[in-house]
Each structure stands twice: as structure tokens, then as C-alpha cells.
């Protein structure tokens, strides 16, 4: 307490009755039991009706002061069973979880992210493109330049991931065309041509119409 008063000696005064005050507020420096009695009276009184932590602090600080007073009040309110059971929740209820469907094949569905902030390499690369298969969680790390346009990224994607083209190009096109980038038509032809150049297993034709890739 001496250290606290020493740092803020101008804020403390002793009134004519010999009571230490912080400005005009009564300093409570006695045992914890006295603080608990003050908190109990302020929280359970018929005139207050279980106020919340902020309301209770605003009321008590008009008359009392002690070190870490706001923290003690918040902890006291959190321990009140009546408050925890009765207080209404003022936030909107959280929605139900909507997980993505689990892929059936490897590289059928992917996620991607760009990691930047690296020093430039001798080849001029300063970022890493991370492509992750959602089913197996296997990842591919592609060195790129942060300044590359989307067309260059598409070419690099086709070159680096050609072994997984059957499903990967479809996933990539869905991701890019669904993003905020308004440049899908610039490289859609590149992806379609690359997809057609990759061997695919023979599938029996069906009578149902299919949309072109």
C-alpha cells in the first residue's frame, strides 16, 4: 500500500476524522471480509436487484475505492448463481454448424492459401502458394511471386499439379470463379485445354445431359 500511495500521493488525502480517501471516495484497505460485505450489500440489496458487473462498479465507485476494484466486482458477479441462471442472453443465438461434405476421392476438393512476407529468393519468389487436399490433408507448396496475375497463377497451377488434373482442375475452377476476382474468363480457356490434354479413365456415356466443363 505504501508503494501505491507513493506513486499517486496527490490522489490520496486524510479527512478530519482520520479516514484515508482516494479523492472523495473511501479507501477500503482492510481484510477481504469487509470488501465481501460491501459487494454483498451492493449486489443482493432489494434496491439493486442483482446488477451486472459494470452497473455495480459504477455504483460502488461513487463511494468506495480499492486496488483492482473493478476486477473483484466482475469476479463476484460471475460467481452469483442467480445471475448465471436468470440473466437474459442479449446476443443472437449462434447458428447450426454447416460442415462441408466429405470428399469421396483424393484431390476432389481442395483448399488453398497464400503465405507472404518472405524475403525474395534468387529466382524472384517471395510467397508460397499452399494447396491442400481436404480428404487426405496432404499439401503442396508452390513458390510464387506476390505480384503474379491470376493468369500466371493458373499456368503455374496446371504445371505443378498436372498429376491430379482430373479432379483438381474442376476444383480450382470452382474456387476461382466463386471468388471476388472478376477475371475467370481470362484463364478459363487455359484450364479447359489443360484438362482435355490429361488422360482420363473411360466412362460409359449416359442419356442424361451434362453441362460442358
UniProtKB/TrEMBL annotation:
It comes from the Eukaryota. The lineage of its organism: Eukaryota, Viridiplantae, Streptophyta, Embryophyta, Tracheophyta. It comes from Sesamum latifolium. GO terms for molecular function: nucleic acid binding. Residues 32-88 form the Integrase zinc-binding domain. Pfam families: Integrase_H2C2. This is Integrase zinc-binding domain-containing protein.
Amino acid at each position: 500500500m505504501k508503494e501505491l500511495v507513493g506513486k499517486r500521493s496527490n490522489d490520496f488525502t486524510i479527512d478530519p476524522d482520520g479516514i484515508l480517501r482516494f479523492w472523495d471516495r473511501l479507501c477500503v484497505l482492510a481484510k477481504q471480509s469487509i470488501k465481501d460485505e460491501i459487494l454483498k450489500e451492493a449486489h443482493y440489496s432489494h434496491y439493486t436487484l442483482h446488477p451486472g458487473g459494470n452497473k455495480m462498479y459504477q455504483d460502488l465507485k461513487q463511494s468506495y475505492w480499492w486496488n483492482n476494484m473493478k476486477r473483484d466486482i466482475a469476479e463476484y458477479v460471475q460467481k452469483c448463481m442467480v445471475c448465471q441462471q436468470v440473466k437474459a442472453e442479449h446476443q443472437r443465438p449462434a447458428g447450426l454448424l454447416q460442415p462441408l461434405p466429405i470428399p469421396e476421392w483424393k484431390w476432389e476438393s481442395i483448399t488453398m492459401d497464400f503465405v507472404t512476407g518472405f524475403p525474395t529468393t534468387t529466382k524472384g519468389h517471395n510467397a508460397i502458394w499452399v494447396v491442400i487436399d481436404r480428404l487426405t490433408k496432404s499439401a503442396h507448396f508452390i513458390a510464387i511471386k506476390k505480384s503474379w496475375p491470376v493468369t500466371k497463377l493458373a499456368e503455374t497451377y496446371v504445371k505443378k499439379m498436372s498429376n491430379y488434373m482430373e479432379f483438381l482442375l474442376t476444383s480450382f475452377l470452382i474456387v476461382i470463379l466463386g471468388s471476388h476476382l472478376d477475371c475467370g474468363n481470362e484463364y478459363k480457356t487455359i484450364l479447359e485445354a489443360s484438362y482435355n490434354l490429361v488422360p482420363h479413365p473411360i466412362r460409359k456415356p449416359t442419356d442424361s445431359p451434362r453441362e460442358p466443363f
